[in-house]
Amino acid sequence: MIYSFNGHIPVVHESSFVHPLAAVTGNVIIGKHCYIGPGAAIRGDWGEIILKDGVNVQENCTVHMFPGKSIVLEEGAHVGHGAVIHGANLGENCLIGMNSVIMDDAYIGAECIVGAMSFIKAETIFEKRQLIVGNPAKAIKEVSDEMIAWKTAGTRLYQQLPSDCHKSLKEVAPLREIPENRPKQEDFYKTLQEIKRKE
Asked: Which CDD domains has this protein been placed in (predicted)?
């Protein structure tokens, strides 16, 4: 669902995919090859939200802010299921773990990894390549080359997903029996491991 608000109409690049059960409102700009999952709410009613190329905002995430703010999710930022980004800026190729909360005027540096269910207080700044966990969250070590390679490989799958959704996602009635020729799915975890080894 795409909504205008106070004259602002969201801008979504044609290569990106916004699930019909997501809500994108107002002053929002979504770059190339972005994925917005079902249940996500990106509310640009009180300020500007910019998602640069290759960002994914997964199921049931919220991106919002206090009035008058502008926030940016830089290239390749990866926002896991159920996370809340409220008035925070995300650096390039960072990962926000599932059900984490990032508060106003916080900044997550490039290639940081935020652990699942972490709480980052308002105005907290983390420099690049930090592993961040806890409530309140703290940096516990530097992100290794191996960790960021794994993260980058996972994000590439999400950058391919918009194209796959445009090609094959459609609303259907459910089957009542399992068909004999039910297609098999690729082992994406195995694919991730192979990508990581090549890097």
From this structure: LbH_paaY_like
CA-nearest of 95, 93, 74 to 29 is 74
Q: Is 134 left (phi over 0), alpha (psi -120 to 50) or beta?
A: left
Residue 137 included in any domain:
yes
Tell me the mean pLDDT per 10 residues along the chain, length 199: 97 98 98 98 97 98 95 98 98 98 98 98 98 97 94 94 96 94 76 57
Instruction: Specify the CATH number for the domain of residue 15.
Output: 2.160.10.10
Query: Could you tell me the residue range of the domain that residue 113 belongs to?
Result: 2-142
Asked, for residue 119, whether it belongs to a domain, the answer is: yes
Tally of domains within the chain: 1
Q: Is residue 151 part of a domain?
A: no
**pTM (two decimals):** 0.92
Q: Rounded CA gap, 157 and 35, in Å?
A: 10
